[in-house]
Structures are given as C-alpha cells and as structure tokens.
Amino acid sequence: MKHILVFGQSRQGKSSLVNLMTGKDKYNGAEVSPNVIGCTFTTEPYMNNNYCFWDTAGLNEQDSGCVANTDSTKNLISFIKDSRGFHAAIMVVSWNNFNSAATKQKLGFIL
Q1: Where in the chain are the domains?
Q2: SS (H, E, C) the chain
Q3: Which of the listed ranges 6-10, 20-24, 73-77 does the model predict with the highest average pLDDT?
Q4: pLDDT of 73-85, one tens digit each?
Q5: CATH number assigned to the domain covering 2-106
Q6: Residue pLDDT, tens place only, 30-74
Q7: N or C, which end of the chain is more exposed by having fewer CB within 10 Å?
C-alpha cells in the first residue's frame, strides 16, 4: 500500500480531496464542513484498494480555530518524523487563498 500525506491550511479542501481519492463521502469518509472552521483535528488514515491517504488538521486556523496554529504545525512535524515515510505528499492550496495578483503572477497563474 502506498502512503500519501495530505496537508495544507485550514478550509482548503484536504478532507474533500481525500474523500474524492478514496471514493467516500462526508458520511463514511473524512468529515467535511461548509463552515468557516476546520473539522479535522487529528491525522487520520483513509484507504482505498491501493493507497492510504493521511488527512491532517489544517494549518493556520488563527484564533477562531479548534487547533492552535503552533499545535497543528508541531503535530504535523511530529507525525512526519514518527512515520515510516510517505510515497508522496500533497499540499492543498485554494486559489482564493493567494493574497494578491502579484503573488499569483509570480507563481505563473496570471497570463
């Protein structure tokens, strides 16, 4: 089985991506929420036939979140160090999360 780490800031779609990749939904897979707070608080495995996707707590929840930013970052680093490694890592970033047109242009997203 291949292990894939899924990480990124809160409310970017990490759990939705995990559900898409495993063929599950919010009722039998990773919990998702349309609200503005994160709903994943620990690192959890979700599997399909060939892959194990590790859904992680969102980074940078700010003061309104349930997991402090420093805690979620420390937890992610500890989890990576304690693991036996991953075959790949996916960083989930929302287009709307970019701060400015200049940032998008630097990254090559504006033609």
Answers
A1: 2-106
A2: CEEEEEEEECCCCHHHHHHHHHCCCCCCCCCCCCCCCCCCCCCEEEECCCEEEEECCCECCCCCCCCCHHHHHHHHHHHHHHCCCCCEEEEECCHHHCCCHHHHHHCCCCC
A3: 20-24
A4: 888 889 999 998 9
A5: 3.40.50.300
A6: 888 666 556 666 789 999 999 999 998 887 765 555 666 677 788
A7: C
Phi and psi at 74, nearest 5°, equal: -60, -40
Strand order in the sheet with 51-55: 44-47, 51-55, 2-8, 88-92
Residue 86 identity = F
* Both structure tokens of 59: 């980074």
Burial degree of 98 (CB within 10 A; 0-12, 13-18, 19+): middle
Identify the CA nearest to 64 among candidates 35, 93, 92.
Answer: 35
Q: Is the pLDDT of residue 19 over 50?
A: yes
- pLDDT exceeds 50 at position 111: no
